[in-house]
């Protein structure tokens, strides 16, 4: 079964830049997987940040950006703020109607 | 406003059955897939399966196939997630979410299911 991998945790200083990545246990992530990214704070449902690799969802600040870096999808936060401290999940579309979530990255801003 | 509103929290005993709901509004319910996502306590998000309310075509994650049942009633713009015999390990928050193309938005507020003897 396909496993989508993410860094379990990451930290960034306020104002700094951080790149979270999303990979596959076997193979490379490309735009054909239509990677999307979601932010979740405790007690809240997820919020859609990025879809189709690099398109920001409505209302998402432009300091969030998506890309493909090497063989992984990437979410970059430029100018991190305290309220960016959240869990971040990527989703890859596998085809045949099936999507798979990554395990999530817990981002600490300190 | 496009919105998904889920049914309230449930407390059940092992072996009991349960059906939770997700009502869509603000858009043509039959034109978009609805997915269900599990989040066990302190854990990550897991994609369970998806349904197209227009014809009830359904796809399950291999991990959840045979464990749950997803259905929809297009006449009342509602999707359902159902268990025939709950286990303690089904304790989790369950989210429904609309699929837009290949991504998910918006999300329901979540339904907390607690299974305990």
Task: Give descriptors for this structure.
heterodimer; A: 110 residues; mainly beta; four-stranded antiparallel beta sheet; 53% strand; B: 117 residues; seven-stranded mixed beta sheet; 11 strands
What's the gist of this structure?
The complex is a heterodimer of chains A (110) and B (117). Chain A has no helices and eleven strands. Chain A has 110 residues and is mainly beta.
Would you write up a description of this structure?
The complex is a heterodimer of chains A (110) and B (117). Chain A is mainly β and 110 residues long. Chain A has no helices and 11 strands. Chain A has strands spanning 4-6, 9-12, 17-24, 36-40, 47-51, 55-56, 64-69, 72-78, 87-95, 98-101, 105-109. In chain A, strands 2, 4, 5, 6, 9, 10 and 11 form a 7-stranded mixed beta sheet that branches. The radius of gyration of chain A is 13 Å and the shape is globular. The termini of chain A are far apart. With 117 residues, chain B is mainly beta. Chain B is 0% helix and 55% strand. Chain B has strands spanning 3-6, 10-12, 18-25, 33-39, 45-52, 57-60, 69-73, 78-83, 92-100, 103-107, 111-115. In chain B, β7 and β8 (78-83) form a beta hairpin. Chain B is globular and about 40 Å long. The model of chain B has no long low-confidence stretch (mean pLDDT 97). The interface between A and B is medium-sized, with 25 and 26 residues.
Q: How much is the radius of gyration of chain B in Å? A: 13 Å
SS content category of chain A: mainly beta
| Mean pLDDT metric of chain A | 96
Considering DSSP H and I runs of 4 or more, what fraction of the residues of chain B is helical? under 10%
Identify the most extensive interface between protein chains.
Answer: A-B, 25 and 26 residues
Overall mean pLDDT of chain B: 97
What's the order of the H and E elements of chain B? Answer: EEEEEEEEEEE
Shape of chain A: globular
Q: What is the number of E strands of chain A?
A: 11
Detail the poorly predicted runs of chain A. Answer: none
Structural class of chain B: mainly beta
Shape designation of chain B: globular
List how many beta strands of chain B DSSP finds.
Answer: 11
Number of separate helices of chain A: 0
Order of helices and strands of chain A: EEEEEEEEEEE
Distance between the termini of chain B: 40 Å
- Poorly predicted runs of 5 or more residues of chain B: none
In what range is the share of β-strand residues of chain B? over 45%
**Distance between the first and last residues' Cα of chain A:** 36 Å
Rg estimate of chain A, integer Å: 13 Å
């Amino acid at each position: 079964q396909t496993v989508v991998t993410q860094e379990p945790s990451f930290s960034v200083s306020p104002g700094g830049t951080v790149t979270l990545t999303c990979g596959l246990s076997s193979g490379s992530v490309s735009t054909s997987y239509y990677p999307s990214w979601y932010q979740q704070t405790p007690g809240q449902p997820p919020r859609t940040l990025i879809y189709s690799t690099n398109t920001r969802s409505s209302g998402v600040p432009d300091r969030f950006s998506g890309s493909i870096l090497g063989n992984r999808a990437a979410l970059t936060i430029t100018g991190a703020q305290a309220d960016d401290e959240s869990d971040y999940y990527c989703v890859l579309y596998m085809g045949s109607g099936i999507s798979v979530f990554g395990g999530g990255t817990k981002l600490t801003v300190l | 406003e496009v919105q998904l509103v889920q049914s309230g929290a449930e407390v059940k005993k092992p072996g009991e059955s349960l059906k939770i709901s997700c009502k869509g509004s603000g858009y043509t319910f039959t034109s978009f897939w609805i997915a269900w996502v599990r989040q066990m306590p302190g854990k990550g998000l897991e994609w369970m399966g998806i349904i197209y309310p227009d014809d009830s075509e359904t796809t399950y994650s291999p991990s959840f196939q045979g464990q749950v049942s997803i259905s929809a009633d297009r006449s009342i713009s509602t999707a359902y997630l159902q268990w025939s015999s709950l286990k303690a390990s089904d304790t989790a928050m369950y989210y429904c979410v609309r699929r837009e193309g290949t991504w998910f938005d918006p999300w329901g507020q979540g339904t907390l299911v607690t299974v305990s003897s």
